[in-house]
Design brief:
The chain is mainly beta. The chain has three domains: 90 residues, Immunoglobulins (Immunoglobulin-like, Sandwich), CATH 2.60.40; 183 residues, no CATH class; 235 residues, Jelly Rolls (Sandwich). 7% of the residues lie in helices and 43% in strands. The strands form six sheets. Strands 21, 23, 24, 25, 26, 28, 33, 34, 35 and 37 form a ten-stranded mixed β-sheet that branches. It has an eight-stranded antiparallel barrel with strand order 8-11-12-15-16-18-19-20. The chain has a seven-stranded antiparallel β-sheet with strand order 22-27-36-29-30-31-32. A hairpin with a 6-residue loop joins strand 19 and strand 20.
């Protein structure tokens, strides 16, 4: 025992001696700190810049290791080199105070301050209207929607970098574990104060932290966890800015709104990932989708979906029991489709049916026929009526129209670059309530240039064409075998399924056009603004439909 005590004392003595050899060296604060500001686009004619609000700051100092910029708009930025381009986003000509902190060894620092006057012209007032409603609006996690919390890649792969392709939370998934129970308590309150947009996160004392940031909350769980953490107690300013991301660079309509929400004073949208800037993918009165880059891993993009109505697990319009069969076509009689149920659009339409499509629609048996219990719509490469392709667009207009219910369609889809099959519904008042005012519900869309990828969309005022509310999912063998495509449409929600798996939920309400009669449309288009380039070797391909059934 005495030998152990002696050895321990010697070890401590040696450790102490060794520690004395460590030192910081000369502790010298940064000297000769200078700070320059260059307003982008500043000329004699444009003294406040080109309207982008961008200013290039350059700081330099002797003995400086890194630099931190503090801006009076409530944002901060670390710039190890001393150079940083800042975009000021408050609309109009504004003067900002800028402080740079140059840090040296052992944390000693020197500061310098300047002012800069710059103009920003970017605005998106519709976003402010959607977020705040009449003045203040509360948003909640859309916990009943698959992918309400998800993560995907952030790189130049335009096929994969615009959605949560790595992980999508299942409906109410975060209600099932103690470490994440706090997430769905979040209330995200947006308000309008004068000409400013403000935000306050009410999280009732706990925040769901990404594991990479648990140290911010003093935690050490080693995985995503709810920690006690209270954000700012007063509403903080949110600035709008043009988005600059890989998704914007893709140039694909509908993938992003191209507007950023820039939160000041460290604001964040419920899940702590080290981000204060969120790219708006889409926003309506009742649904908000954002994308943010994880602060310590710019290869990851997180996706959040919020609703202006708080979802209730096990309740809501999505669970309406529509089980009374009110209309169907089983396609059991060979020959032309049942004329008591179907009619047709004929011709090329205006500007290729509004989409730049390349086909001429006919009701010929070459393009549409029922055989062996299956409806077949065939797109062909042939010169007809001034077009290079033919196909069919059939509809139940004036034959069968309905409001609310469940639609099940069993179909096998065509193949080939440029094919664009769709199973969808259109508001019957389209003649007097011009599209998109009449509304459109796309139960299933597919394009041959993205084989095995399924889309469902909703078109309505403010969200038409490329701005439609769209969700996609992968379906292996979508053209090799029959799959069931379904929609459940109620006053409270519109939910889309493939083979009984829910993949898209939309919160419906009386202010939208989804509260009156719609009719069904089946068609196969060629090319157009969604179908894309047509394979020059394409000859023909067929969409087969086994049945369509409507329940109320």
């Amino acid at each position: 025992m005495k030998n152990f005590i002696l050895l321990t004392a010697l070890a401590l003595l040696c450790f102490t001696c060794g520690q004395e050899e460590y030192s910081f060296g000369d502790i010298t604060s940064p000297q000769n700190l200078s700070l320059a500001a260059e307003v982008v686009g500043q000329t004699n004619d444009t003294p406040f810049g080109d309207g982008t609000g961008q200013v290039v700051f350059t700081a330099s100092a002797d003995n400086a290791i890194t630099y931190r910029y503090i801006f009076s708009d409530g944002t901060e930025e670390i710039a190890p080199s001393g150079q940083f381009t800042k975009r000021f986003n408050q609309v109009g000509v504004n003067t900002y105070v800028v402080t740079v902190v140059a840090s040296g060894t052992a944390g000693v620092s020197t500061t310098a301050t300047t002012e800069v006057t710059v103009e920003s012209t970017f605005s998106d007032p519709e976003v402010v209207d959607f977020l705040t409603g009449s003045g203040t609006k509360t948003w909640y996690w859309a916990a009943d929607e698959p992918g309400h919390l998800g993560v995907g890649q952030n790189d130049d792969n335009s096929e994969l970098n615009f959605y949560a392709n790595y992980y999508q939370a299942a409906p109410f998934e975060k209600d099932g574990a103690d470490e994440s129970l706090c997430l769905y308590q979040d209330e995200l309150v947006f308000s309008r104060q004068g000409d400013g947009l403000f935000f306050q996160l009410n999280n009732f004392g706990q925040t769901y932290f990404n594991v990479g940031y648990e140290s911010v909350a003093g935690g050490s769980a080693g995985f995503d966890f709810c920690y006690e953490f209270t954000p700012a107690e007063e509403p903080q300013r949110v600035l709008l800015a043009p988005a600059e991301s890989f998704v914007v660079d893709n140039g694909v309509p509908g993938q992003t709104r191209a507007t950023n929400l820039v939160f000041t004073n460290g604001g964040f949208m419920g899940y702590y990932i080290g981000a204060t800037t969120y790219e708006l993918i889409s926003v309506t009165d009742n649904r908000l989708v954002v994308r943010a880059i994880q602060g310590n891993n710019d290869g990851l993009a997180w996706y959040h979906i919020f609703s202006s109505t708080k979802p209730i697990q096990g309740g809501g319009g999505g669970d309406v029991d529509y089980d009374n069969l009110v209309w169907a076509d089983e396609f059991n009689a060979d020959g032309a489709p049942d004329a008591s149920k179907w009619t047709y659009n004929i011709g090329r339409g205006d500007n290729g049916w509004g989409n730049g499509e390349s086909q001429y629609y006919t009701d010929r048996s070459d393009n549409v026929i029922v055989e062996n219990g299956v409806l077949k719509i065939t797109a062909k490469k042939e010169n007809f009526g001034g077009a290079e392709y033919t196909s069919t667009r059939m509809k139940t207009e004036d034959k069968f129209e309905f409001t609310y219910g469940r639609v099940d369609i069993s179909a096998k889809l065509p193949t080939g670059g440029g094919t664009w099959p769709a199973l969808w519904m259109l508001g019957e008042d389209y003649a007097t309530n011009t599209w998109p005012g009449c509304g459109e519900i796309d139960i299933m869309e597919h394009v041959g240039n993205q084989q095995d990828r399924l889309f469902s969309s909703l078109h309505f005022p403010g969200n038409s064409g490329g701005e439609a509310i769209t969700r996609a999912t992968q379906v292996s063998g979508i053209s090799d075998e029959f799959h069931k495509f379904s929609v459940i449409w109620s006053p409270e929600s519109i939910r889309f399924f493939v083979d009984e798996e829910l993949y898209h939920t939309f919160a419906n309400n009386g202010s939208l056009p989804f509260d009156s009669d719609f009719f069904l449309i089946f068609n196969v288009a060629m090319g157009g603004n969604f179908g894309g380039d047509i394979d020059p070797n394409f000859v023909e391909s067929t969409m087969e439909v086994d049945y369509v059934r409507v329940y109320q």
